[in-house]
Specification:
Elements lengths: L5 H7 L12 H6 L2 E3 L4 E6 L3 H11 L4 E6 L10 H14 L4 E5 L8 H8 L3 E2 L5 H6 L1 H7 L4 E4 L1 H5 L1 H6 L10 H6 L4 E6 L4 H14 L2 E6 L3 H9 L1
Parallel strand pairs: 2-3, 2-4, 4-5, 6-7, 7-8
Antiparallel strand pairs: 1-3
Helix pairs in contact: 3-12, 4-5
InterPro entries: DUF1638 (IPR012437)
Protein name: DUF1638 domain-containing protein
Length: 228
């Protein structure tokens, strides 16, 4: 039997998985992240990892350990509270002096607050991350019931969190059913990034909505981290 040449043997091997940076959006979406070696544990949504690390760098804060859960949990809100509770128990068993939860309610219907109260752990206030980026009171006062919000992370991951799960690529006729009551896509920008702004504009076009960009910076997230 004739032996294969080296090139043929290499071609026949399964491709090695592509290594992902810990801050790669796909890694934050599906894998989460652990970073830092401080004595204060932050249990965090992966969608906030970049912003939290940026604030901590600006503040010179090195007393945190980040335990970022996969951001894709937002597509399954019923899984958020149990996942956070698991991380709280793990952090307590490892002897962390302080534990804080950087999740808003995020569609858990109060289940996350029950978990935090059970374990005497503080979480950042707000119904969702859009509120604490813009300011909880400010966003409540706007009463924008016809606004669909994106953050920097969601602008990057619009297809993963919106288009694909809702089947809009295969069934564009579903757009009216899901988004017919919305009028404007509001991009709450944490950074000045032209490429992200263009992604957000494209998302608005996909959904057939008007586009508005508001620069929020890190909002109450920065305030909360300074307090921790």
């Amino acid at each position: 039997m004739r032996r294969q040449g080296r090139a043929a043997r290499l071609a026949a091997r399964p491709a090695a998985p592509i290594a992902r940076s810990p801050l790669d959006v796909e890694a934050l979406t599906h894998d989460g992240l652990q970073a830092g070696q401080g004595r204060t544990a932050l249990i965090v949504c992966g969608a906030l990892a970049r912003e939290i690390l940026a604030v901590n760098r600006a503040n010179g804060a090195d007393h945190f350990t980040l335990r970022c859960l996969p951001a894709i949990l937002h597509n399954h809100p019923d899984r958020i509270a149990p996942a956070v509770e698991h991380e709280i128990l793990r952090a307590k068993s490892e002897g962390y002096a302080d534990i804080f939860v950087l999740y808003a309610d995020c569609g858990t219907g109060g289940a996350l607050d029950i978990v935090c109260e059970r374990h005497d752990v503080t979480r950042i206030r707000g119904p969702h991350c859009y509120a604490f980026f813009e300011g909880v009171e400010m966003q409540a006062a706007r009463e924008e019931v016809t606004a669909f919000y994106l953050t920097d992370f969601l602008a990057r991951q619009f297809d993963t969190f919106v288009t694909r799960p809702l089947g809009l690529q295969q069934h564009p006729e579903l757009r009216e059913m899901y988004f017919g009551n919305y009028e404007t896509l509001v991009y709450l920008a944490q950074t000045d990034d032209d490429a992200l702004t263009q992604k957000a504009k494209s998302a608005a076009e996909t959904l057939g909505l008007r586009f508005e960009r508001r620069f929020t910076g890190y909002g109450e997230l920065a305030t909360a981290l300074a307090g921790f």
